[in-house]
Design goal:
Order of helices and strands: EHEEEEEEH
Largest sheet: 7 strands, mixed
Structural class: mainly beta
Number of helices: 2
Strand order of the largest sheet: 3-4-5-6-2-1-7
Distance between the termini: 34 Å
Number of strands: 7
Strand content: 15-25%
Amino acid sequence: GICHCRMCQKAVGGPFLAWAMVPSADFAWTRGQPAMFRSSSAATRGFCARCGTPLYFQYDRKSDHFDVTIGSLDQPDRVTPRVALGVESRLHWCDPEKFTELRGHDTGSLGSPEDLTRITNFQHPDHDTPSGWQAPAG
């Protein structure tokens, strides 16, 4: 789903949160355990303590599943949201019709303050992460 509620907007620092519901029994963390933040009296949110990436949302009373952030997955394009929630807080420019009006540009095509070919990415790599991988200190 896509959630536009103010809590999710604040949790990701963006206009909405894209998530996938996962049964707890069918999921395992492959590199350590996430840090947790109690974001309300009803739920916790998990995030990577090393890089800050939001990882999940879980209601206290629904421990049989949780919602994993789609952008944190190694293959986010394999998940297609099917529902929009919190639409009362949807920003007017986040209307799906308006997104199709936006011009698309490849990363770096509009210029960047840095040479993108020389930037070292400190975030967790996608796919086949080597055992023992650690983000460089920085």
